[in-house]
Structure formats: structure tokens, C-alpha cells
Amino acid sequence: MVVDDSAIIRGFLCRYLSEDPDIEVVTTANNGVVALRQLAANDIEVVVLDIEMPEMDGLTALPKMIEMVPDIQVVMASTLTRKNAEVSLRSLQMGAVDYVPKPETARSVNANIDFRRELVDKVKAWASRRRKKRGEELPHSDNSAGPGSRVASASGHAARVVSPRASSAPAGFVTARRPAAPVSVASARPAAAVDPIKDVPHQKDIKLRTGSFRRPKILVIGSSTGGPQALMKFFSGFKRAPNVPVLITQHMPSTFTAILAEHLGQATGWPSQEGRDGMPIRPGEIYVAPGGKHMEVVDDEGVMKIRLTDEPPENFCRPAVDPLFRSVASYYGENVLAVILTGMGHDGLKGSRELTRHGATVLAQDEATSVVWGMPGAVATAGLCTEVLPVLELGAATATRLQGGVG
């Protein structure tokens, strides 16, 4: 279900979602009151929920939706303002599963291919996770298969291929599972993009290695889809502030990263801030890569500092995990402890290879507690991890490693 008070925005969102053969837009609503009625009347797995709406806004509707359908997957959609960033991250604490930063205008929504890809990928990822928890089949499109036939998905689950249905909805409201006309170049998924359902590794293919016995001097963390919640759970495993600097690259736009840093500081009680160019890094403090910038470390006359760059995106992301991991590998070598949390794609894989080449230790979140086991699965199945653990245990294991080892 798409919930937005703008008919134009609803139309765009419905079109982008319905162009993917694995997604069906069941219904729409222009405010929270209508959305609750629609939720009661329809079988809905994922809600894309606007924040600012008349009669009942998204933040008011959110807990009511969860009360009606406890495992409903609600993805908040908001424009890139500080207020909306704060509300979006607060909604995660109230039960929303994710957010998508919505461009400011209808024109920019229509032109922004990154927004389209993120919207579709997150809807599919959260629907997939809900079905896994329920033990249900995952969607898997295959044009060569007939309606209702069964195929094996890349994740090893059987999947049902659903044939397109004729639409009986009013004009401007799309329900067809396949577009009636070829998808335009502007809306097509880039060839190298990752499908969050199909292109994931297998837990059975994990290959562990021996990590460094040196005491870590820096902790670096990479995360993406589901990352804000995973970071909160991860740090809850620490009984005291870390004795090393903590640098985090979370795939997020600008504005959101500053709010995330504030939330992490409130949750942990440790100094936490968005990284700034030239900022010295200190033990016991958290630095979050700002949206739109890659974050690295450099040695400035014996003082380790943050460097921000405008280098091209890597793995479709800026900030990306790989630049951070590469930079700490060259300066800290075997004294690096790296952690890969939930996220789609394989950002962090190349950086982890560089880290292990220098003798560093890499830990990863397991598949069961990851929203998408793409990033952690990539490093785990490449033989780069020393441990693969549930997120709560991962935090405790990390804290233990920071206190141990050889100096």
C-alpha cells in the first residue's frame, strides 16, 4: 500500500513499484485514516508511508497499523529535511522497519533513478524478510515459467511465479504485476545492481579464517539496509565505551547521517558525531560518515584524522564502506577490527579483502538477524571472516576483542 497525500507522488510510486514483476500495489491512501481502513480491508505486506499528511499523519498512523497487523512492514517516505530525518529515525524506534528519503518535488521524484532503485529494493527486501519469518515462499519472477509454476530461487527457496492480472482500478492507479509497455531507460535498473531477494549468498557457504591476535586500535563498521536498528542492537552488547575510535559508514543521505550520529550518542552515552574533514579521531568516540561523502583516515604528522572526499560512488554508494576499509588497512594493518552488518549488495567486500591482506580481523552479522544478508554474506562466504554471529552476540564479541589481544 502506498500512502501519500499527493496524488502525483502516489502515481509515481505506484508506477515504479508495479514495474517490478515481483511487486503488486494493492491499494493507496491519501492520509492515515484512509490507510487504516484499507489495511483492514486488504492483504498487505508492506506499507510505504508518508509522514506529513492531513487528518492523520504518518507518525500517528504507524502504531495503529502495527497494532492491527503486528508484522506489517512499514517503510517511511519523507523529504530530506532535518525535521523529517528526525521523525524517520524516531519511527524506527516505534516499529517502522526502514525509510526512503523522498526527493523534494514531483519532478525530482520522477527523474531520480537512485530513489526508484532504493524504493523497489527496500520494499522487496522487507517483504522477503516477513515471508521468511512466516515460513512462506519468496517471490521469484521468471518469464519462461507459466502461471503458478514453481522455480528455485537463488536463495534456495521455492517460489511461485504469478501471472499478470488485468487492472480494475481507477485511472492512474496501477495494479498490474508487469508493465504494459517496456520500462523506459530512465527507470530501468542498472545492469550491475543487486536484487535483494535473488542475489544473496548462502549461509551454508560460510568460510571462516583465523583473525589477528593483536589488540585492535580502531573499530570500523559498514552497514546498509536495516543498519540503524542493527547498530543500536550491536552497541547494546558493550558494557563500557570502547577503548578505540569507532568509524561507521552507513548508507544514508546527508541530513540523515547527522541525526543517526545523535541517536547513537543518546543510545550509548558516548561522544558521537558526523565526521568532518580534518577532524582528529579519539578513543571512545563514534564518527559517522556524512551522506554524500566518502570517509577515510589519514596520518597528519602522527595524528590520525578523518578525510572526506567527493570521489565517485562505489557500489552505487557515497559514502561507501570500501574506501573506509582500504584507508584503515594501510595505516593500522593487523590492528584493525572490522564489522559488516546487514545490507544489500557487496559493499565492504573489496575493503575486507584489503584488510585481511594486512592481517586485520573481520566479523559479520549472521543471516538470521540480517534484513538482507548481502554485505555480510559476501564477506562471510569469501572466507574473510573470523566469526559470523547474531547481531546481539556480535556486539558482545566485538567488545571482548577490543579488550583482549596482544598490545
From TrEMBL:
Its main location: cytoplasm. Residues 212-405 form the CheB-type methylesterase domain. Contains a C-terminal catalytic domain, and an N-terminal region which modulates catalytic activity. NCBIfam families: PRK00742.1. The modification 4-aspartylphosphate is found at D50. The keyword Membrane does not apply. Residues 1-117 form the Response regulatory domain. Phosphorylated by CheA. Phosphorylation of the N-terminal regulatory domain activates the methylesterase activity. It catalyses: L-glutaminyl-[protein] + H2O = L-glutamyl-[protein] + NH4(+); [protein]-L-glutamate 5-O-methyl ester + H2O = L-glutamyl-[protein] + methanol + H(+). The active site is at S224, H251, D347. The gene is cheB. Its EC number is 3.1.1.61, 3.5.1.44. Keywords: Chemotaxis, Cytoplasm, Hydrolase, Phosphoprotein. Residues 128-162 are annotated as: Disordered. GO terms for molecular function: protein-glutamate methylesterase activity. It comes from Kordiimonas lipolytica. This is Protein-glutamate methylesterase/protein-glutamine glutaminase. It comes from the Bacteria. It is found in: Cytoplasm. Pfam families: CheB_methylest, Response_reg. Belongs to the CheB family. Involved in chemotaxis. Part of a chemotaxis signal transduction system that modulates chemotaxis in response to various stimuli. Catalyzes the demethylation of specific methylglutamate residues introduced into the chemoreceptors (methyl-accepting chemotaxis proteins or MCP) by CheR. Also mediates the irreversible deamidation of specific glutamine residues to glutamic acid.
